[in-house]
Amino acid sequence: MAQKPIIEAKQLTKVYNGRPAVDRLDLAVYEGEIFGFLGPNGAGKTTTLLMMLGLTEPTGGSVRVMGLDPARHPLEVKARIGYLQENMGFYRDLTGRQSLAYIAELNGLDRQTAEERIREALEAVAMTAAADRKIVTYSRGMRQRLGIAEVLIKKPKIAFLDEPTLGLDPEATNRMMELIRDLCRRHNMTVVLSSHFLHQIQKICRRVGIMIDGRLVAQGPIEQLARERLGVGDRTYSLEEIYMHYFQEH
Length: 250
Hints:
Layout: E1 7-16, E2 19-29, E3 34-38, H1 45-53, E4 60-65, H2 74-80, E5 81-84, H3 96-106, H4 111-124, H5 140-153, E6 158-162, H6 170-187, E7 190-195, H7 198-204, E8 207-212, E9 215-221, H8 222-230, H9 239-249
Parallel strand pairs: 3-7, 3-8, 5-6, 6-7
Antiparallel strand pairs: 1-2, 1-4, 8-9
């Protein structure tokens, strides 16, 4: 029996000022995978994520997250997912621990549960030693890891990560990608990872979707996309080569 998608979009469309930002998108993401959502800036990736999160309503088509319509059941969906947005905002005069405590309070956790989850989240992102420093002293990489910790406080079934390595140096980027892979494995989370850093995506994702000008032009395992567009040869194609082939076609 085929596995049922944990996220499924059918003909999902969003129109702004007469122009489709997302154009009849069909997409399936399966439980426990890290799905790479690729495309240049302005391709429609973030708009798609916002519809999945219930933060904006589709103009047409449908999307289901764990069987729920985010537009009709936004609170139920938000209670089960985590979201790391591209430009995380923090109260910079709080410490990392205080910021996590605030998130726990917003999610209605009692004190004992909150303290336990804060400890677990800090350990998971290797931030325990810096937890009582003010966020204003954190590097970009540390703030990104704190953002991941905020996602973990909810113990989400699905995590949406929008450009989690943006602005990080190569070493911090590698650490972030390893962290995402480890969290997916240890917490059995499904991760939708939106990015345009293709070589990093290839390291941790088996399946990807490529979005260009509001349209999902390709979806599937990286090896399958290479066979379909570049043929089978005596070499392994990089995700960047595959992506550029689709980009040039469109």
